[in-house]
Every structure is written in C-alpha cells, then in structure tokens.
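User: Here's a structure from my thesis project, written as structure tokens. My advisor, Dr. K., wants to see whether a designed sequence matches the one we expressed. Can you design one independently, without my sequence as a hint?
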C-alpha cells in the first residue's frame, strides 16, 4: 500500500498554493463573506491558469486528470476559501463530470471546452420544499410540448443559481411509476423566461449563498435533456458520489485552515503568564482536532483512489461525507472556543468557519442520512 502523492501531484499542489496565496488570501475571503460578494477574481484566476479543465478530457481542452487530482484542487481551494471551492466544485461536477458521463456528442462539444476554460458556471437543483432528504419524491414537472419540454415547479436551496449560466435541474417527466423512476435531468439556461430566483438569507456561505427558484411554464429545447429520459436517478446517484468527494476534500481544506488559525493563536495568546496552548485543556483539544483531521484527509484520498480504480461504494461515499462533515463542524467549534471572546467577534475568522461548517452536516445529505446508508449496508 502506497500512501504517497506522485511528483506531478506534489507539483500540482505547490502551483495551486502559490496561485491561491495571491488570488485568494484570507482578507479577500473575509471581504467576500462580509459583503456577500462571490469570489470572482479568484474564480477567474483559477480559470486563467486552466484549473477548470483538470478532469476534462484533452480532446475538449482539458488535462484529463484523476479524482485524486481533483481532491487536491478542492482541498487547496477549501483551505483558501470554502465558498470558492463550492463554486469550483459545482461547475466541475455538474458542467464537467455530468456532461462527460451522460452528455450527447453535441452537449460535450458545446459545454466541455467552455467548462475547461472556466468561461461558464453551473449549479445543481434537486431539493424542493417538500423533498429534502427524500430527494426522489421531487415534484417539479417537465411535460412534452412543441418546443421540447415545459417545466413547472419550485426548487429550494439551489446554490449559486443567480451567478450560474446553466443549472442541472432534476425533474419528473412521468408520474405513473415508482418515485425513483420517471426522473429526467436537464441542463438548462438559468436566464430563460419563466424562471424567478429569490435569495435565501443563511447563517453561513454568504459570499455565494443559496436561492429559491420558481419555474413557471419554462420552455426548454429537447437538446437540454442530459442522459436518458425517465432514467435520471441512476445518474443523480453518480453525480452525488462525485459531489461527496469534492465537498469532503473542500471541507477538509477549510477545517485545516480553521485548525491552523486556532493552533497559532494557542501558541501566541498568553494568560496566567504562559501561552494558553501550554494548558492541557487547550492542547488536548488541538490534539483531538489534529487526529480527526488526519483521518479526514486519509478518507478523502482513499475515496478518490477508490473512485479512480472504479471500486468506490455507497458505503465509502457515506463514510467520507459523514466523517469530514462532522470533523469540520467539531474543529470550527473547538477552534472558536480556543479563541475565547475573540472567537465570538466578527473581526476574527473563526466565526466564519463556525457558521460555514454548520452546513457540512446538513447539505448534500445530512449526517443522519449518511448513518442510515452505513447502517443499511450492515443489514440494519
Ligand atoms: C445552504 C444550503 C445550500 C444547499 N445547496 C443545495 C444545492 O445547491 N442544490 C440542492 O439541490 N440542494 C441544496 N441544499 C439542500 C440540502 O441538500 C438539504 O437541505 C438536505 O438534503 C436536507 O434536506 P432538508 O433541508 O429538506 O431536511 P429534511 O429532509 O426535512 O430533514 C430534516 C431533519 O430530519 C432528518 N431526517 C430526515 N429523514 C430522515 C431519516 N430517514 N432518518 C433520520 N433522520 C432523518 C434530517 O437528517 C434532518 O436532521 C442546500 C441546503 C442548504 C441549507
């Protein structure tokens, strides 16, 4: 068993770190969060340096990289700024991976070169007001019409809809079958007539955030269908595994940044004539944080490796999502405590990690749902 990164992967990481130190320094991330401003300059810097093409095949202008390479990209973006990583992962997963997996030759030719250049961004809409954890009970309807399909319904929590060019929308094209059947995926233009987007105020993830979207007689051409009509659920499952890798890597990066800040603070903040890190109550917290983070990283790269080998399972996807999400939440919480009153102040960054990390155990499948998947695999 070899746990080392290749020389190319080490180089990849070093390039990214250099780029992100300039394109997305901590004060820029703070400003984006404070002002609810998407990190456009950082997104464009990654685009200019070809990072959106990392997993796109060379014939479409990409580098044909692996899931392991992608995990490195997202861990580093998450370390710099989690909201940047969220934006990057959505475009790469729903504009890149999904199209590579299910796109027609025309969709691939149209979209993959633009994704590779970072010219477009793509978001994902499955959740509805009445279908969250039970995502397959979605009701948004796509009905055949002269122009192709007419979409009616409502989505909630479509993150980045207002800054995306395309949305991968999951809709129902048939109501006569079991809930996992009759589902079709569409890659739609986000600016079509009949689409209304409303921003949702949230605890964290403020730079890009999330939205409520209403679809009222939205006409989409037949060419917007991604994959096979009525059999979209199997694809959704695959996209969500990919999403779990990306999110887990990004959140492990963000958790590492929160940990390093708290560690440095514990070494420099003095009380009772000594650094607070010399009190066992603080040093043991940091030791627990570090041990959990080491496990997160191991799980992320193990899962990426399994994906590259075609050996990843539903269990592996649930374990990595559960552990990395819970670890990020724990690290941000303990980090805030280590900063004492300053952790509670908006001028210090721990509050941002604390707010953002709360989503890690909720979004893209809650921790309870991950535990259900693991338990089901155990025959429970
Ligand atoms: C900021 C943010 C961004 C998001 N971004 C996106 C996005 O871009 N695209 C998108 O489609 N969705 C997105 N989501 C939606 C997200 O994936 C859902 O919120 C999540 O899946 C949970 O669904 P729900 O909120 O409806 O909670 P519910 O499903 O109503 O669950 C409520 C509670 O009940 C528990 N629960 C439910 N069922 C079970 C069960 N069987 N066993 C045990 N416990 C259970 C849950 O774990 C949870 O604690 C986002 C959400 C947020 C908050």
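Assistant: Designed independently from the structure alone:
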């Amino acid at each position: 068993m070899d746990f080392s990164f290749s020389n190319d992967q080490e180089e990849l990481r070093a390039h990214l770190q250099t780029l992100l130190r300039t394109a997305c320094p901590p004060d820029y991330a703070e400003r984006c969060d404070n002002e609810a401003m998407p990190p456009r300059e950082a997104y464009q810097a990654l685009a200019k340096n070809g990072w959106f093409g990392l997993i796109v095949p060379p014939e479409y202008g990409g580098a044909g990289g692996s899931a392991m390479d992608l995990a490195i990209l997202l861990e580093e973006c998450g370390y710099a700024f989690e909201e940047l990583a969220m934006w990057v992962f959505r475009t790469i997963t729903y504009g890149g991976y999904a199209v590579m997996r299910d796109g027609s030759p025309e969709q691939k030719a149209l979209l993959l070169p633009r994704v590779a250049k970072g010219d477009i961004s793509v978001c994902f809409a499955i959740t509805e007001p009445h279908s969250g954890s039970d995502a397959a009970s979605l009701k948004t309807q796509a009905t055949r019409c002269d122009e192709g399909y007419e979409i009616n319904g409502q989505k909630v929590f479509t993150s980045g809809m207002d800054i995306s060019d395309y949305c991968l929308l999951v809709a129902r094209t048939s109501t006569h079958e079991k809930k996992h059947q009759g589902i079709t995926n569409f890659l739609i233009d986000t600016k079509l007539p009949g689409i209304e987007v409303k921003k949702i105020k949230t605890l964290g993830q403020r730079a890009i955030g999330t939205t409520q979207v209403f679809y009222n007689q939205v006409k989409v051409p037949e060419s917007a269908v991604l994959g096979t009509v009525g059999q979209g659920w199997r694809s959704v499952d695959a996209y969500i595994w990919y999403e779990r890798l990306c999110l887990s890597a990004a959140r492990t990066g963000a958790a590492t940044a929160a940990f390093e800040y708290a560690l440095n603070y514990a070494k420099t903040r003095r009380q009772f004539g000594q650094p607070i890190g010399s009190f066992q109550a603080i040093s043991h917290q940091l030791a627990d944080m570090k041990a959990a983070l080491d496990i997160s990283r191991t799980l992320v790269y193990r899962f990426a490796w399994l994906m590259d080998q075609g050996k990843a399972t539903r269990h592996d996807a649930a374990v990595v999502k559960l552990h990395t999400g819970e670890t990020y939440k724990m690290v941000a919480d303990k980090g805030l405590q280590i900063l004492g009153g300053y952790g509670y102040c908006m001028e210090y960054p721990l509050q941002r990690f604390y707010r953002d990390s709360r989503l890690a155990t909720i979004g893209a499948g809650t921790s309870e749902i991950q535990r259900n998947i693991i338990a089901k695999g155990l025959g429970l």
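When you compare it with your expressed construct, this may help: The two ends are 32 Å apart (CA to CA).
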